[in-house]
Amino acid sequence: MSTTTQFVTDGGLETDLIFNKGIDLPDFAAFPLLEDERGRSLLSDYYDQYAGIAAAAGAGLLLEAPTWRANRDWAARLGYDASRLAAVNEAAVLFLREVAARWDDRLSAVRVSGQVGPRGDGYRPGAAIDPQEAADYHRPQLAAFARAGADQATVLTLTDVGEAVGVAAAAREVGLPVAIGFTVETDGRLPGGTTLEEAVTAVDAAGGPAYFVVNCAHPQHIERGVGDEAPWRSRVGGLRVNASTMNHEELDNSTELDDGDPDALAADHVRLEASFPALSVVGGCCGTDARHVAALWRDRA
């Protein structure tokens, strides 16, 4: 990823589709939408909103595939075997290439990323994960992205350092740059209590990704975990924040969307950005939509 180009990325795809569009997404999985014309049309319209924001901001666009749940365990619950899963992961990248082609002449840069999610629940960490086991688990999805010609991969909402080390190793093995995204609780720490500094430092010591992302938390929560100025901060290249100030348990149990206030979110985001001098990717996560991301970029101008 260029250190000079700034990239718009999308918001909370799944919460936008479920709460704003009334789309049923079993197990929070959006990737099955790629397999029929209506679903592809919904996704196309969704990504076009963010391409328009990037064009208005004079920024690049990072298109993230709708594949956060497209790994073996979650996909099996939806009836996908290994072959069909590989095909839909490849199809996601090719689909985003079609979106990119429509906007290529209006944007400074467009990159396509295969998105990876955690093996387990992004909000509830379990036992510590062995890095080699994580590498073996996530490698097939990363390999599918690489075969399809993705520019990079991004893994979001990780809670475990071992899983992050494994994903980074698997991405290196298949020759794909990767961004590692951690989520934090309201105290600014990973759900298991690890600090962001500890997590970033540990993953970098094991080989490291292209850059790090912090996602699925409100800017106020992330800010509590920033601490004093330190080298690790310059390794954070992406922020994808939540609209709500609720904690993960509250969000998980909520039956209504808390979409917060886009302008207040943007103001909090501007303050947070000062902590991350290498920040180049800005978008949203749960509860956010194009309104929020447009506000984030309006306040960055």
Automatic annotation (TrEMBL):
Domain of life from the UniProt record: Bacteria
Keywords: Metal-binding, Methyltransferase, Transferase, Zinc
Residue stretches spanning the membrane: none
Annotated residues for binding of Zn(2+): 216, 285-286
GO molecular function: metal ion binding; methyltransferase activity
Entry cofactors: Zn(2+)
InterPro entries xref list: HCY_dom, HCY_dom_sf
Domain Hcy-binding, residue spans: 1-300
One GO process term, biological-process aspect: methylation
Protein name stated in the entry: Homocysteine S-methyltransferase
Organism: Nocardioides guangzhouensis
Organism ancestry: Bacteria, Bacillati, Actinomycetota, Actinomycetes, Propionibacteriales
